[in-house]
Design goal:
By secondary structure, this protein is an alpha+beta fold. Helix content is 54%, strand content 19%. The protein contains ten helices and five strands; from the N terminus they run E-E-E-H-E-E-H-H-H-H-H-H-H-H-H.
Length: 194
């Protein structure tokens, strides 16, 4: 219905923003991922999804097509509504969410507020095949490591004598269990499992 909004930001918070377009202010629900990608930009273009329910019309905004596509996949799963999907996208980056689903890591998904073990397993079961058609776990894993914290932790582990493949495998496992780890935490926790 409304594919995107291009306009001036008149109000912003980590979960909600108002974008003025053609003299009309559109209230748009956003994830923390979108909030961080937009930054302090005055004029923005948000891709959108309009959710129509009996009692509300809610507009959801996304910084990129990857996030919007993942949102639509998430809400297609029974028991996952728009607010739960937004919580998932606020807790993990889209690439991390996809990687967790592709690898069957429902333990990581159940750490997200509002996601229980059954819903996490349902996400994996329902979306794993759909994602495999368009995503490669290897591509997503390499994208994971294009992160300064990963690169520093990887370099430190290699300097400590571990092979690159061994260090990457350990780092990936730790990152899935502890998504917000610093370089020091990544190295310490990876050393414990290597």
């Amino acid at each position: 219905m409304i594919a995107h909004i291009n306009g001036k930001v008149t109000y912003r918070s980590p979960a909600y923003m108002v974008v003025e377009c053609g003299g009309v202010g559109y209230g748009i629900q956003i994830s923390l991922h979108t909030y961080s990608k937009i930054g302090e930009s005055e004029s923005i273009k948000l891709l959108t999804h309009l959710s129509i329910k009996e009692d509300s019309h809610t507009l959801y905004g996304f910084a990129d097509e990857e996030e919007r596509h993942l949102f639509l996949l998430l809400i297609s799963v029974s028991g996952v509504g728009t607010n739960t999907a937004r919580m998932i996208l606020s807790s993990l980056k889209p690439s991390e969410t996809k990687l967790a689903i592709l690898n069957g890591n429902w333990n990581l998904l159940k750490t997200i507020k509002g996601i229980g073990p059954k819903t996490a397993q349902r996400l994996v079961i329902d979306l794993q095949d759909k994602l495999k058609k368009v995503e490669s776990p290897d591509q997503l894993q390499s994208a994971q490591f294009n992160n300064p914290a990963y690169e520093e932790a990887l370099a430190a582990l290699i300097m400590l004598g571990f092979s690159k493949a061994e260090a990457e495998k350990g780092l990936l496992k730790i990152r899935q269990q502890n998504p917000a780890s610093s370089v020091e935490q990544l190295v310490k926790l990876t050393l414990k499992i290597l």
